[in-house]
Write a structure and sequence with these properties.
heterodimer, A: about 350 residues, mainly alpha, 13 helices, B: about 350 residues, alpha/beta, Rossmann fold, 6-stranded mixed beta sheet, about 15% strand, globular
Amino acid sequence: MTRTVGAVKAGPAAAAPAAVRKPQVRYGASTVVAVAALALVAVGIGWSVAIGPTHLGIGTIVRSVLVGGDSTDAAIVHGIRLPRVILAALVGASCAVAGVIMQAVTANSLGAPEILGVNAGAAFVAVASLTFATGLSSVSLVPLAMIGAAICGILVMVTAGLGRGRTDPVRIVLAGVTLTTVIFSVMQAMIILVDPSTSSLFHWLVGGVNVGTWSDSRTILPWTVIGLVGAMAIAGKLNILGLGEDLARGLGIRVGQVRVLGSVLVIILAGASVAVAGPITFVGLVVPHIVRKLVGINHYVLIPLCALVGADMLIYADIASRYINPPSEVPSGVVTAFIGAPFFIYLARRQKGDQ
Amino acid sequence: MKATGTTHTRAAIASLIVAVSAAACSSSGGGGATTAGAAKGGHDGGVATGVTMSALQKQVDLSQCGKSTRAVKHDLGVTTISGTPKRVVALEFSFADAAANAGIMPIGIADDNKTSKVTALMAGITHYTSVGLRSAPNLASISALKPDLIIADTTRDAKIYSQLKSIAPTISEKSVGVGYDDTLATDLAISVALGRCDQMKAALAKHIAAMGSIAKDIPAGEHKTFVYADIVPPNFNAHSADQWEPQILATLGLRSVLPPKPGSRFVAMTLESLYTANPDVMFLGIDGPEKTLVDQWKTSPVWKQISAVKNNAVYFVPDALWSSERGLKTSEVVLRQALDHVTKSGK
């Protein structure tokens, strides 16, 4: 089997086409991870809703979450704190699933929308749109962000030569990093030239969910569902693709088609996330690796668990953002960057060790 | 083709640097900015310390006034200046206003490429050459003007001070994040460099008298709480008590809901933290007619519970006038506008 350097490791029993088995499902580990992730989501939602400048009793919070009400306290819980954490869960899930798909279709463990220029492209088009047409809603921004994500994703793939035979994964990462750097430089120039004394466009350099509203959650929800359902629909093909391109072709998988489908799903998930929360970093990179380590490489299990763990990561990053420098809040995208950076270095060094 | 592990690691580290740099740039530009705006003397959020000429003259080293060749101390060192500079470039609006009030019209101003920011309130400045952004002044444009004095902003221009010095004698004072009283002290310090101490003292005395005259119309016993914030979507950047606008507003007897916070220009508030602070009056600086964060907050029942909203005491004010200029005449206009708003609310 031809093994691409930096590729996501193939599962066991991948020695010969005749003896191909589906990637093993570790049912026990998967169940434990699923239950733990769900529990952490529940705890995270409770914790996020419980903290804030206005002191609210537990009873008030529980009643407001479950029943609602007309009081100001209920409005704080239901109208300010709850939409924020729900948005964090949806965006985190979308970013993580986009990451796991991207790593599968590029056969690159460093594949993630924030590394390969997809998030940067989405953010750039969002910034450009808002510069020339202020007041655009997040609903209007979603298709625009997706267009930006698509253009940059295609540029990176073309630059890296994806689709023309085997592609060097390092080349993909370098192309993505280069394009991301160029785009962020252009965005910073726009910020300086168009809006030098204000920070309105800084949100598009690093994302956050601190002003998340129910409208934002309603905007991203259908796209998250489409992305998740679509990812599960191609999960089997992603499993086979993980065994190697040649083997996948030998088994009748249309590799090009799977890559296109996967890329479309990444664009949908990344574009929608960036439109409502800006470019959140490292969730798409880190979460698939963590989950893969725990439950293996079967995408039927990997995808939904990545969604849950991705939600966890952004929920807790958002909680942490409120403790770092009160009463100001650090954007949650900064927190994910500081969580993800050490992991990123560890990953790169581990791959060097593998080689 | 087989890539080396070293190359792979370098690619990983390069992408890491991109991501963390973007995060760092954003966090340094967002809420909670890092400029130093230490208030001298004591301020509590409720009653403003009265600014007097004697207090200002004690704050500033006036020993070089009247000398033909002056060794002027400033934030970044000591600069020797001879005679009266005539070709002055100001890298902040308040510095341009100071020079003009001292009788020297600046020939160059860093106006963020927006001439609209230099209004008629700025002591009659009508002709000048733009030298670009305050955050990144154009050194070539400054050099082309052949200035004999450059007045730089310590917070923004410290990194290019040596280049500025090579163009012309340069002094550096703080403007960003500085309170009202410190702004007046800086004006006096600039007049020492200009060799126009007496003119500036006269202008400041006239200004202090004008502020006192406006303050006479303040109703007795005024003690409402207030917040002043720049509305910069998606942020609500409230200014702490030691910043310029809150100090002006404290002259009216109003009390800031935020305490002094030296080292930080503003606090990014959420709707909930604003509700908790519950100001009686809000002054919100906006840049134009575009929708802001407040338009989104207005739909929330929490917004309607804030005292200022219930009292119909939410006032949208022009950000350029209230935040950017910080000149002598501008201060008088801002105080008068604030007084008109507060007395109109009539409570």
